[in-house]
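Is this the right way to post structure tokens for a design question? Let me know if I should format differently. Anyway, here goes:
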């Protein structure tokens, strides 16, 4: 029995020796794998390679943190797939078209438009006409979405006069902001009120009976317009080809090519006649004319 047990032990020892001989021996001349790469690499164990690779991947991500989100930021809509735009330019008192575009192919809902927080109507096919208030800026948004934008409004007006312009004459002119008429706007001339524009932005005023210039100013809230009007001296012309001493001579008084009424014409310093287109009893080609006060 002990003999049989000894044979079994001997067989096990032989098997272990054969298995050991079959495995490759570790060469002590080989170094452990390096970690990190480059000049800063350090020797370590094989088990550390996986951890180092993960650490390097994390470092590259930290070098460019916006790389993953860059394309998303460039194509992001204003709010949940919605974009809002207006037709330019925005002129005070005018109108503009607000467009709401939904990038979702499954949505066909219309949206209520807010102007400075007040509802002005619901879009139709994504568009809505809105009036531009008399303010320097306007905020347009949606009542059912957290989406709004603020835009600058043009408030610089202009005054355009009808020609001709002369003393003691009614002159009509129009007020606009860009191409938009400016109605219900008070106009002053040298600080004195001369009227209010109609629904087409037009008004008329009588020019003073003097030579010089006048300043026209129009204001409506933040909208302003002004211009300076020159009133040159009238021109006196003797209309007869022949002028004889002691006989009447016809003359005309014009300003900007149009006759000026109710002026006194004098020759050689003596007042002779009025109104315009009357006779002067003197031989004088350098006559003067003054509007009657």
């Amino acid at each position: 029995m002990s003999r049989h047990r000894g044979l079994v032990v001997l067989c096990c020892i032989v098997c272990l020796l054969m298995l050991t001989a079959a495995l490759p021996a570790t060469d002590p001349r080989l170094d452990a794998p390096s970690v990190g790469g480059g000049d800063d690499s350090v020797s370590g164990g094989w088990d550390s390679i996986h951890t180092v690779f993960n650490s390097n991947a994390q470092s590259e991500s930290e070098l460019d943190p916006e790389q993953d989100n860059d394309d998303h930021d460039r194509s992001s809509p204003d709010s949940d797939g919605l974009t809002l735009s207006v037709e330019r330019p925005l002129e005070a008192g005018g109108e503009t078209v607000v467009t709401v575009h939904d990038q979702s192919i499954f949505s066909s809902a219309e949206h209520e438009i807010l102007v400075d927080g007040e509802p002005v109507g619901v879009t139709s096919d994504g568009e809505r006409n809105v009036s531009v208030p008399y303010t320097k800026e306007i905020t347009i948004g949606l009542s059912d979405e957290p989406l709004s934008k603020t835009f600058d409004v043009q408030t610089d007006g202009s005054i355009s006069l009808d020609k001709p312009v002369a003393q003691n004459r009614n002159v009509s002119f129009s007020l606009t902001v860009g191409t938009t008429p400016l109605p219900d706007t008070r106009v002053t001339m040298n600080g004195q009120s001369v009227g209010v524009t109609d629904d087409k932005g037009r008004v008329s005023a009588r020019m003073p009976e003097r030579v010089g210039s006048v300043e026209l100013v129009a204001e409506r809230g933040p909208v302003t317009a002004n211009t300076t009007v020159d009133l040159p001296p009238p021109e006196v012309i003797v209309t007869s080809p022949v002028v004889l001493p002691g006989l009447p001579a016809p003359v005309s008084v014009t300003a900007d090519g149009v006759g000026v009424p109710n002026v006194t014409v004098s020759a050689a310093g003596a007042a002779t006649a009025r109104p315009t287109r009357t006779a002067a009893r003197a031989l004088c080609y350098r006559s003067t004319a003054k509007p009657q006060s």
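Format looks fine. Someone answered above. Worth noting: Residues 235-291 form one domain. The chain is about 15% helix and 40% strand.
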